[in-house]
Amino acid sequence: MGLGLGGFVDGIVLHQILQWHHMVSAQRPPTTLAGLEVNTLADGFFHVATWLFVVAASITSIRAWQQGRLAPSYSFHLGLVLTGWGIFNLVEGLIDHQLLGVHHVRDDLGAPLSWDLGFLAAGVLLIVGGWLLHRRGARALQRRRAARVR
Predict the structure, then answer these.
(1) 52 near 130, Cβ under 8 Å?
(2) How much is the pTM?
């Protein structure tokens, strides 16, 4: 769920609202109609992929609920969502920004490296914070299970 939602935040906020970059804006600048069309199409495919991550996570969650497994606490679930969002930032930042160079966080700047590094740092913070929150929820779940066994 976090991979998909992190992708949606990236696509909606950075691509559409702030218009700092598009999926292939470093390769095909959106400064012409043809360049904007290519980037809009690539952004659309990106949004389809993030939507599929959210659909898959929703189906998995519904199946777990139908099987009668104990629903985890909010901190358990939210921690995993934040961790997934952080993983999205790291993978997207390393592959698209650094390795492939198809875009940077801010393509409208001459030296975008500091923004790219900030994006990666945000990913690390999301992973660490999300994992700590998840572990807190997991410990609470273990305590509840142990109390029921007694």
Answers:
(1) no
(2) 0.88
